[in-house]
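Make up an example, fold above all:
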Amino acid sequence: LTHWKAGLLGGAITQDWAVTYLGVSAVPTNPLFPNSAYADIRWNFQGGGLEAGADFDWNLGCGIGIYGEVKGALLYGRYKNHFTQNLFNGATLLYSEIDYHRKESRFIETVQLSVGPSFSTGICGMNINVYALWELNGLFNLHEFYLSIPGASPTAGRDLRYNEGFIGMQGLTLGVDLTF
């Protein structure tokens, strides 16, 4: 049994990373001179849009089945990113602090696939469906990050590589549907 559906979808995602790296210098005159780097990356997105998809329920018998959903959406919203970074070779500053802010409105494409076992039964004219789904979500044109270019001198300015990318998330969804 397949049901086609469409509707409105809203979403918000926030991520805050604080990364510290301590390593060993590649300086030939003092190979044990420590390197260090610190990066703080904070970003969020809030938006809404339209989604369309289908759910399916394959009854195997005795109320047991396989339930799943496939959806896609196009969201429009506000993206904010704040990135700071310091790189040191011991006491020597390799790069001055990068302090980057970005705010913009953008479209985000999403896809979702979920599948898992289900159990359905009827009680007093009401249908109850219980399911446990493994869920995979993909968000395109959402995540971006900045990396210092290796080998650039501290006087070269804020040399950065900009990357837009894909975020994939997976998880477990437990649910109960009641139909009257």
